[in-house]
Amino acid sequence: MKTTWRSASLAASAVAVLALTTACGSESGTSASSQNVGATAPAGGIAGVGSGYGSVGSGASASATGGAGTGAQAQGAGGLEISANGQLGKILTDGAGKTLYRFDADTAEPPKSNCDGDCATAWPPVSADDVAAGDGIDKSLLGEVTRTDGTKQLTVGGWPAYYYAKDTKAGDTTGQGVGNKWFALAPDGKKAKSDSASEASLPGLSVRKDANLGDIVVDKNGMTVYRFLKDKAWPQPVSNCNGACLEKWPAVAPVEFGETKGIQEKGYMNFTRSDGTKQQTINCSPIYTFSGDKKPGDINGQGVGGTWYAVAPNGKLVGAPGQ
Fold first, then answer.
1. Given its phi and psi angles, is residue 52 left (phi above 0), alpha (psi -120 to 50 degrees) or beta?
2. Short-list 47, 94, 27, 6, CA closest to 267
3. Cβ(184)–Cβ(88) under 8 Å?
4. In terms of CB atoms within 10 Å, which of 56, 67, 81, 89 comes out highest?
């Protein structure tokens, strides 16, 4: 039996749609393979991943740049110490009492820094040279990672360590919570927090009952997760939030589905952004946090510009017109 041109065309279209739909749903969250703490790994990465790294002076812009740049010069720490902070508890400081920080966009297994260029101007890496563990610090947690410029950066529990340029004196912790991505280092390499909750108290993504919005998705820090109406989910995820937009709306980094609670599995994947970094989606829609949310429970990003809305567990927009 002869196949008409119309039936053949319809069949080809169906195959194409199926292939694109599969592409959106087939890629799952990724996890880094384990590696011994302190083992050397290429630094790589895109400057300012996750945004929210702050700026220092007129020469430091918030745009992502390739390469290490002059701001990536590592600074020596000398003897590390454990300092008591009234709000954060025990934090890690250098021999001069300056606070050490870690970046959520980095990885610990294997150790990898994703802060270069302008980011490293605002957050100078801590040199791994001539570092000594003070009283109470587990030496086995200290290691190093090779940055893009070939220098060695200190790692604590696998996490690359940084200073914050706006900390001007011993005891300053002005970098705590910047962009919901930067946190003071606890002595064990975990994040120092301003509340009593432990780092593992929340999954990577979970659901919170909001009095006004109902069930909404929050990240591992309890911060509200949002979607952008100008993004695309099908046939493949596309983020249209870049540059200055990404500074205000940091992209949510990939989270394994097994590290979530209450989030639907369908369409749960990550994708590669135009800057080469990975971003998480729910139901194939890119998700973000909002720099204007200062604490867990804030929903200051809801309805901003008529284009930003909180996300329901099934990935749909909460409170958006027509939803």
1. left
2. 27
3. yes
4. 81
In whole angstroms, give the CA distance from residue 185 to residue 100.
6
In angstroms, the first-to-last Cα distance of the chain is 47
The answer to whether the pTM exceeds 0.70 is: no
Instruction: Convert the pLDDT of each residue in 251-298 to its tens digit.
Output: 999 999 889 999 998 899 999 999 888 999 999 999 999 999 988 889
Q: Which is it for strands 278-282 and 152-156: parallel, antiparallel or unpaired?
A: unpaired
Residue 228's nearest CA partner among 148, 186, 297, 290 is: 290
Distance (Å) of CA 120 to CA 15, 16, 55, 80, 144: 47, 44, 10, 21, 17
User: How far is 98 from 169, CA to CA, in rounded Å?
Assistant: 7
Under 8 Å between Cβ of 216 and 253: no
**Euclidean distance between CA atoms 142 and 128, whole angstroms:** 9
Q: Is 8 exposed, middle or buried (0-12, 13-18, 19+ CB in 10 A)?
A: exposed
| Residue 283 to residue 128: CA distance in whole angstroms | 42
Separation CA 48–CA 289 (nearest Å): 15
pLDDT tens string 145-168: 999 999 999 999 999 999 999 999
Cα gap 151→143, rounded to integer Å: 13
Between CA 75 and CA 87 the distance in angstroms is 26
